[in-house]
Amino acid sequence: MVIAVLAVVVIAAGGWAGWSFLMPMYQGRDDPYTVLPRSEALLSSEDQQVDRLNRVVSKQTELHLSESSWTRWTSNDMGANVQLDVKYELHTATPRASGQEAAAAWLDDRIAHAEDPSLRVTKVRDIGDEAVEIAVPSGYEVSVRAGNATITVDYSVYGTDGAKEAEQVQKTARRMAALAVEHIEKANSKAA
To answer: Which of 49, 68, 87, 151 has its CA 20 to 30 A from that of 145?
Structure first.
């Protein structure tokens, strides 16, 4: 009797361990990204729109791990205070979901949290697989899903006036998000 119970326990434990180990491999078979580049490199893309930022901001802090990379740049000029946060996150498969499904859930969660009436949430086309833009009084946050990677570009400029300046901030935030997707794609093509 004891041997039978012990055998059932061993089989159940082995099955659970096998499921936990093998299922993420199966779930993640279609996840395109395995390498996450440093988000700090985004400003060295030599893109004309983004290159202007290099003249007004300097890197304040960064954190780079295997599944997450975050960098903040700031400027505190007399006329304006610029803050730029860029975060890359790699979503890996689990026994319950693929990395792409986890990344899609992350984006859905961003949209749900932005349902404050003072914020304006807009779906943005042609950036990654899915992208939304959240307009805040001082700037824009663009959240993007590209496969199993997610990107957040939060670009705020305090002290600017007028629709033209706001439009420029919006265009730059969107351009940076698009460049970030390219950045992740290139890092993974080099690793392959």
So the answer is: 49
Classify residue 27 as exposed, middle or buried by CB count within 10 Å of its CB (0-12, 13-18, 19+). buried
How many whole angstroms separate alpha carbon 106 and alpha carbon 183?
A: 20
Measured between alpha carbons, how far is 10 from 121 in angstroms, rounded to an integer? 51
Tokens representing residue 2 in the block: 């004891």
pLDDT at 96 over 90: no
**Residue 15 identity (one-letter amino acid):** G
On whether the CB atoms of residues 155 and 177 are closer than 8 A, the answer is: no
Query: Virtual CA dihedral for 166, 172, 178, 184, nearest 10 degrees?
Result: -130
Structure tokens at 112: 């749900």
The per-residue b/e assignment along 118-141, b for 16 or more CB within 10 angstroms, e otherwise, is: eeebeebeebbbbbbbbbeebbbb
Give pTM, 2 decimals. 0.82
**Which of 176, 192, 191 lies closest to 45 in space, CA to CA?**
176
Taking only the tens place, the pLDDT of each residue in 5-48 is 565 555 655 555 554 555 545 555 788 899 899 999 998 877 87
DSSP secondary structure code for residue 82 in this structure = E
**Secondary structure element (H or E) that encloses residue 54, with its range:** helix 48-54
Confidence of residue 191 (pLDDT cuts 50, 70, 90): confident
